[in-house]
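Per reviewer request, we include the raw input and output of the structure prediction for the construct analysed in the revised manuscript.
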Amino acid sequence: MLSPELTDNVLRGLLRTVRYAHGWTSGAGVRVEETEIEREGVRIPATLLLPARGKGPFPGWIAMGGITRMGRFHPQLVRFGNALASSGAAVLLPEIPEWQKLEVPPSVTGPTLRGAIQTLGIHPEVLPGKVGLIGFSFGAPQVAIAAAREELADHVAGIVLFGGYCCLDRTLLFGLTGDHEWEGVDYSLTPDPYGRWVVASNYLADIPGCEDAHDVAAALRCLATATSDQRIPAWEPHHDAMIRDLRLALPKRHQALFDLFATPTTGTRPDRDECADIGLRLADACRRVDPLLEPAPDLAKVHLPTQLIHGRGDRLIPFTEGMRMVNGLPSTAEKSLTVTGMFAHSATHSPPGLFDKFREGTALFGAVRSLINTV
């Protein structure tokens, strides 16, 4: 029989989960405070979300998104933050200006989290003590890497990772070919080209033999920027005209390289082996320039409670990377993985069958309840 204290905790957690679900589906009344955090002597903007009702202090959370021009105002990040705040939590969404400009320096994650923790630590409506960390997409492995550092781990109750990657080689291979696998089982789907556009725009010219391909990188940056600014998925035919125009503007010697990363929806993708080769060479360049882009070595150092949630139909980072992430964590760590069909990378989905909806919804509800109870 559960003790009265444990029963109270279970019921409180269940109630907060119901509030989260209501906030997600129906919108939530939250208070929004625009604030700043200090990152190594520089003030950067952040948004603090607080419950509209109820008395604090509230459990503290920090949520970091991915590489997007929308930054902390990305609709899915805002929707999640509002729902979490409506459950009875304080949720801080710090901006990362570099990521908002589609630049990919991973080294800014740790200083950003330190500044965010300090901001929550002095806010009168936030419970003193440890906070929870949440990372989405590119932010997921970076949060895990930063949380492995002792100076941050001492202030963190647990981490939650949505749609993260574990292996840079496999992730870029998927982004260029659509192929991925887990324990000998092969999977394939049409990948979202946005990820390969962003990575190549940053590191293509660092590949040996591609040092003069800055024009290709700039063209891919234009594509990624337009996709993010217009909020139109990168795989949509809407971008075909721009892809053709950018290709024609390049010198002929660079058009084939551009084709490996960007082709119109009506066109045929280049040879699979050529795409795979450039993906692996790009991964090598990323590791050489920014070793923190490869999270696998640091995952084994993450001893905090860690929960991973990944979309089964994710077209940007495949669900098999979520499986690799959870396997890469220490065997002694408290960890869990939920692979769900209820959403993909940045969008909500609904399974077609009633039974599937119930099953997926139940699993996702349990994952959210576990998330909420982290802090």
